[in-house]
Specification:
The complex is a heterodimer of chains A (about 150) and B (about 800).
Chain A (H helix, E strand, L loop, with lengths): L25 E5 L3 H13 L3 E6 L2 H11 L5 E5 L7 H11 L5 E6 L3 H10 L3 E5 L3 H13 L2
Chain B lengths: L6 H27 L4 H20 L3 H18 L7 H22 L9 H17 L4 H8 L2 E2 L13 H9 L7 E8 L9 H10 L3 E6 L2 H5 L3 E2 L1 E7 L4 H8 L5 E9 L14 H52 L1 H14 L8 H61 L4 H16 L3 H36 E3 L1 H4 L1 H12 L4 E6 L4 E3 H22 L3 H6 L6 E10 L2 E8 L6 H10 L11 H7 L21 H10 L3 E7 L3 E9 L4 E9 L2 E6 L3 E7 L5 E3 L2 E6 L2 E7 H4 L11 E8 L2 E7 L1 E9 L13 E6 L5 E5 L1 H25 L1
Parallel strand pairs in B: 1-4, 8-10, 15-24, 19-21
Antiparallel strand pairs in B: 2-5, 2-6, 3-5, 7-9, 10-11, 11-13, 12-13, 14-15, 14-22, 16-20, 17-18, 18-19, 20-21, 23-24
Helix pairs in contact in B: 1-2, 1-4, 2-3, 3-4, 3-5, 4-5, 13-14, 13-15, 17-18, 18-22, 20-21
The chains are: A alpha/beta (about 150), B alpha+beta (about 800).
Chain lengths: ~150, ~800
């Protein structure tokens, strides 16, 4: 007789988007590019994350964050955006909720801006062009650190 | 392409790319007007940046690279290192054209293959000029090359903090938390490698008090890459937790953690340590080992990955080439799928959709009311039946009772008594149906009002759905600033473009077909309409010349005016040219308006010489045709020396028009009401014949007639007392349609005809009437063109028939 453990389950891996108790993490995506928004959503949704809302500029992001708080687990924040840039929005969000988890989405080479946002409280950053594996890895890392 | 780029995503990419390009263009033109426009510079930069990001994701490398260059150039402009001047604007516009072409090629499924190295060097010059004009800034160099600073400290040497440092550390650690020294090595190959130091710093900050860093924080924050950074932290967290928090994938390669005692001396030498610490140390060692090995394998694996990636890339390239060589069919398929991507997308304000939903919900309520009414009608019917049988019974009883009453008269009963008897027993007969009548009336009232509601809702629904298809004319107007700028430069003219009514809305279907005619007219105006600046000076006309492009809503029509203040149309010149081209006879005198209309004739151009821009004679006639295809009209008015105005009138939408319904024999036709000038009633005697044309006199004007029954071969002419004549006009031509009767105006929904019927002359489409029958819609301009010819033929035929008889 073989124990069931001898047959590794193919779907052994849990979806990244689920909390240990099984409910999905709630994500707010902020990006002025519809295209990036969609791409991020696709990546995250494929791992069963719950995209609760998307925002197209900093002002909207802060507004949406306040609206959904405390039902937001993580925000992905583009840095260059019209109206209000991502760093200012990050500041505002951190002012509002010092435990906010914000991940910056930055273009390659914007090292100063990334450093600035990290000091302001961003938990991590992701470089564009987006790489599925890295996106998930960084987001999961931030979420698991509570 | 990577796994998560699907067609929908590509479509979004192209959508966004085009909107970013538009944004850049309009801002560049703003910038040209005001070279200090900070906002314009910023938004061009942002647009280039966004486009770059998007292109990189969908792996359109040539666009990524090129937009990156543009972004760099804009960055220089933004930081004020480069002053905006005409050359720079030119270079940027050229770059924008390259991007446009690249994106366009990509959306056709091809890669842009023209040489654009000129533009590349133009952009590079912008970047280079900033570094050349200013003293070479060290920072700048660092940015591009991140000087790698090696940490001088050897790992083996005993780590010691200066006394001052120690004091500082102890001061900022009042709770006497355990102090650790964390030494972190960073991956040099990370493209964002200078971020790592800060990232570890902020990460540690979550669980520890970072007391000091070596090198100093400012150093870490600068753009210099440090291979190793030491963090002195105070924390209650166990070392493995510290390790976890200082480990960042792709960024850190090795982490070493040491405990520090009060004197700042490492206390991690196994011999000197208590058991506890030893344990911990072993732990740390273990973790350290695993992590370093992990990190090392991480590095090597990333390296492998990179190598692999290159190989894979090569393979992909190879495969792509093979594919292209091998089968043209597969590339065609690819082309097709790519083209599908570029199919049109309509962006609609969400409020418009909300309005529609609102209306739909009203319709649902409306439907419910109708249901209620219908059941009330049924109830009423039952009520009526009941009353009716009751009524019949009573009537029967009454009839039966008559003999009895007659008898009682005979027996000597008085009339008043009988009358009273009848009244008490049968008065109910007179108001038997009163309740029914009143309830029936109330239902009818309700039905009427509900019907009115339905009427209102359906017409707003119709309007609402139309509004979904409406887009702002801005979409095409935005093209003109650039066009006018380039043209006026090429032709050495100074032109100021004024756009008005950009928010006027036009049917989406029309927008695309409107661009070419408009461009043509604008070109014409700049090329032929305007004088050169010198001439204008002589004529004391203001420079720059003014070109006004204005759109406005007029009831059910949209009017677009193109107004220039150039030299106007020279009637004499037009006349001569027309005679030369045999369009009119030499002895004919023409009115100004007729002369203006001649410019819409094929092959007509009064320009003395052909320029690259216009004047080849294929021109305004095509413009006119295109506008008429949209069931619009175009007119031109001009005043010599003062300018020319082109007026284009278009219906709001192509899908629903107002039609005048007419009847010919048994057939019902619809004529677009916009083409109907008037309708009159005539007697058969009023029809006169001139040169085989049937004509009538309308207010001193002679109008040729067209008998629809003959044109559509519906049978012999009817002999009636009166005919109706609908006078239709297209442009400045008029014709009268002889019809049997007029039915009235109606909103008609145009249904396109299948291919095989589209060749039927004089028919534009079909519509379905309220009772379900199909009615054809007449094509007015075709009728006018056709009418005379056919009428003449049929006339001669008729005469032949007559002759035989």
């Amino acid at each position: 007789m073989k124990a069931s453990s001898d047959f590794p389950s193919i779907n052994a891996k849990e979806a990244d988007g689920l909390k240990p108790e099984g409910t999905p993490y709630k994500i707010l995506i902020v990006d002025d590019s519809i295209f990036v928004k969609k791409q991020l959503s696709q990546i995250l949704q494929s791992e069963q994350f719950d995209i609760i809302e998307t925002a197209g500029d900093g002002e909207e992001a802060v507004e949406k964050y306040k609206e959904f708080y405390p039902n937001v687990d993580l925000v992905t924040m583009d840095i260059t955006m019209p109206k209000m840039d991502g760093i200012t929005a990050l500041e505002k969000i951190m002012e509002f909720d010092k435990n906010a988890k914000v991940i910056m989405i930055s273009a390659l080479g914007k090292q100063e801006l990334v450093k600035k946002s990290l000091l302001l409280g961003a938990k991590n950053y992701i470089v564009k062009p987006l790489d599925r594996k890295k996106v998930l890895e960084r987001i999961v890392m931030v979420l698991k650190r509570t | 392409m990577s796994d998560f780029i699907d067609e929908g995503l590509l479509k979004d990419y192209f959508d966004e790319a085009y909107s970013q390009i538009d944004l850049m263009e309009s801002n560049l033109l703003n910038l040209e007007k005001n070279t200090e426009d900070k906002e314009a510079i910023d938004s061009i930069f942002r647009a280039a940046h966004t486009l770059k990001g998007g292109s990189a994701t969908v792996q359109m490398d040539e666009i990524t690279k090129f937009t990156h260059l543009l972004e760099d150039a804009m960055d220089e402009v933004r930081s004020g290192k480069v002053k905006v001047d005409a050359d720079i604007i030119d270079a940027l516009l050229k770059a924008l054209d390259v991007i446009k072409n690249m994106v366009a090629s990509r959306s056709d499924g091809k890669t842009y293959d023209e040489d654009y190295s000129n533009t590349v060097s133009l952009l590079q010059r912008i970047v280079a000029s900033s570094t050349a004009t200013k003293k070479p800034i060290v920072k700048k160099e660092e940015k591009s090359k991140d000087i790698v600073k090696e940490s001088k400290k050897e790992e083996e040497t005993v780590f010691r903090l200066s006394e001052y440092d120690l004091m500082e550390i102890n001061e900022s650690n009042p709770d006497n938390l355990p102090v650790f020294k964390i030494s972190v090595s960073f991956d040099e190959s990370n493209p964002m490698r200078t971020v790592g130091g800060i990232q570890v710093f902020t990460s540690l900050r979550d669980i520890a008090l970072v007391l000091k860093t070596i090198p100093e924080f400012d150093e870490i924050y600068s753009e210099v890459f440090h291979r190793e950074i030491i963090y002195i932290v105070a924390s209650e967290a166990p070392p493995n937790k510290l390790k976890e928090y200082s480990t960042i994938p792709d960024t850190t390669t090795q982490i070493k953690i040491y405990s520090l005692d009060k004197e700042g001396v490492e206390t991690l030498k196994p011999k000197e340590q208590k058991k506890e610490v030893v344990k911990e140390e072993i732990d740390i060692d273990k973790i350290a080992k695993s992590i370093t090995s992990e990190a090392i394998s991480g590095i090597s694996s990333t390296k492998y990955k990179e190598d692999d990636f290159a190989v894979v890339k090569e393979e992909i390239k190879q495969k792509e080439e093979d594919l292209q060589k091998k089968s043209t069919s597969s590339t065609q398929q690819k082309d097709q799928s790519q083209k599908m991507v570029s199919s049109s997308v309509l962006r609609v304000e969400s409020s418009r959709i909300d309005d529609l939903l609102n209306l739909v919900s009203e319709i649902v309520i409306n439907k419910a009311t109708f249901n209620q009414i219908s059941s009330q009608f049924l109830e009423n019917l039952e009520n009526l039946n009941f009353n009716l049988s009751d009524y019949k019974d009573k009537l029967r009883y009454f009839i039966e009772k008559i003999p009895e009453l007659v008898n009682s008269v005979k027996e000597g009963k008085s009339f008043t008594q009988i009358k009273k008897e009848i009244q008490t027993e049968f008065s109910i007969l007179t108001n038997q149906f009163d309740t029914f009548a009143s309830s029936y009336k109330s239902i009818i009232d309700r039905f009427k009002s509900t019907n009115q509601n339905l009427d209102r809702i359906s017409s707003s629904l119709q309007e609402g759905v139309m509004r979904v298809r409406m887009v702002q004319i801005k979409q095409i107007f935005t093209r003109f600033p650039r066009l006018v700028r380039d043209l006026s430069r090429d032709l050495k003219k100074e032109v100021d473009l004024i756009l008005e009514g950009e928010e006027t809305e036009v049917d989406k279907a029309m927008i695309d077909d409107l661009i070419d005619p408009l461009i043509h007219i604008v070109r014409n105006a700049i090329d032929h309409g305007f004088e050169t600046p010198e001439e204008r000076d002589k004529l004391k006309k203001p420079n720059p010349a003014k070109l006004r492009l204005a759109a406005l809503n007029e009831g059910n029509m949209i009017t677009i005016n193109v107004v220039d203040d150039g030299h106007g149309i020279n009637v004499e010149k037009v006349r001569k040219k027309a005679i030369e081209k045999n369009l009119i006879t030499a002895d004919k005198t023409i009115r100004d308006q007729d002369a203006f209309n001649l410019i819409f004739e094929p092959g007509f151009s009064t320009a003395d010489k052909v320029t690259s821009v216009s004047g080849r004679g294929v021109g305004l006639d095509v413009v006119k045709k295109n506008i008429e295809k949209l069931s619009g009209t175009i007119r031109v008015t001009s005043e010599l020396g003062k300018g020319t105005t082109f007026t284009i009138k278009l219906p709001l939408t192509l899908a629903i028009i107002q039609g005048l319904m007419i009847k010919v024999q048994e057939e019902i036709y619809a004529i677009p009401i916009s083409s109907v000038l008037e309708s009159i009633r005539i007697k058969p005697d009023d029809i006169k014949t001139i040169d085989n044309y049937e004509v009538i006199n309308v207010r001193d004007d002679v109008l040729s007639l067209l008998r629809l029954n003959r044109l559509f071969k519906l049978g012999e002419d009817k002999q009636t007392e009166y005919f109706f004549v609908v006078i239709i006009g297209s442009g400045d031509k008029k014709i009268g349609l002889l019809v049997d009767s007029l039915i009235g105006e109606e909103d008609i929904v145009i249904k396109p005809l299948k291919d095989k019927y589209t060749n039927t002359p004089g028919i534009a489409g079909a519509t379905i009437l309220g009772d379900g029958t199909v009615s054809l819609i007449l094509d007015v301009s075709q009728l006018i063109e056709l009418g005379l010819k056919v009428e003449m033929e049929s006339h001669s035929k008729n005469r032949n028939f007559g002759g035989r008889k």
